[in-house]
Amino acid sequence: MGAILKGMSRVRWHELTHAYGSAQDVPGRLSRVAWVATRASADALNDLALWLGELAVFDATVAAVPFLWDLAATDSVTSRPGVIKLLQAILDHGNPPQLDVQHAAHQAVHSGRTAVDTLISDEDPAVRAAARDLAAAIGSHACETCRP
């Protein structure tokens, strides 16, 4: 794995789940977002969105968020606006049967607040726009599991 996804191989993905079952394919999709051509990167990001955040959040979501922050902050990643939007989708969704997982996923997104502040000043206007939206979502986030 490359420097931007450092530590990804230490995650026991086969023991985690996403919306459709085992998360063993998540590292491959994260790698595609990081290092392949635009179309394949977008397809991999679409898979990750379905698996990790568009329907609900899962234990694999919690494990993936730090790597999504890495991707969002790496200039060579072609799908950075989409990665930032996926982070916002994770913040917007829950998992009522597993409130501890929901809380952990939301806190993982919140932990990147300083990164989003940097992305608001990015050269790419699409990255800036997505980062502004995510910053607003983080600032106004008040789901039941995250309230003090």
Which characteristics define this entry?
Leucine-rich Repeat Variant; 2 strands; 3% strand; globular; two-stranded antiparallel sheet; mainly alpha; 148 residues
Provide a descriptive summary of the structure in words.
The protein has about 150 residues and is an all-alpha fold. The chain has a single domain, classed as Alpha Horseshoe (Leucine-rich Repeat Variant), CATH 1.25.10.10. It has 7 helices and 2 strands; from the N terminus they run ββααααααα. The protein has helices at about 25-35, 40-50, 60-70, 80-90, 100-110, 115-120, 125-140; strands at about 15-20, 20. Strands 1-2 form a two-stranded antiparallel sheet. It starts with 16 loop residues before the first strand and ends in an 8-residue tail after the last helix.
